[in-house]
Hints:
Elements: E1 5-9, E2 27-35, E3 42-46, E4 62-66, E5 72-80, E6 92-100, H1 101-105
Antiparallel strand pairs: 1-4, 2-3, 2-5, 5-6
Amino acid sequence: MESGAxxxxxxxxxxxxxxxxxxxxxxxxxxxxxxxxxxxWVEEGRxxxxxxxxxxxxxxxxxxxxxxxxxxxxxxxxxxVDSNSTDLGDHDNLGTAECTLAQILATQENKMSTCIEYKxxxxxxxx
Length: 127
C-alpha cells in the first residue's frame, strides 16, 4: 500500500436551519469517507455537539491521509443532537455536503465552501 501525506480537516458551518422550537440547533458533524468508485461509506469520526448555534465551529478535527492515485470522497453529515444517544437515528438530520479530499487540497489555502443539501441518506447508524 502506498503511503500518503496526512492532512488535518476542520469543519465549520454558517446559517444552519433551526429544528428546535425555541432555540437554535445543537449541531454535530459526522465525517464519512469512501475510497474509489466502488468503495462503501465508512464513518471516519464525529465532532462534538455545539450547543444552540446555527454557525458552529467545531474544535474536533479529522486527520486524513491523501493518496494521489485514489479518489477519496468525503461526506459531511450534520445532525441536531437531541440526547446523549450515539445512534444517529435519534437525532435530526440537518443536511449533507459531499466533496473529495483532492477538491479541498486543490483550493487556495486548502479551504473550501460548499452548500449543504437536506436529503435522506442511508448510512450505517452506529459508530
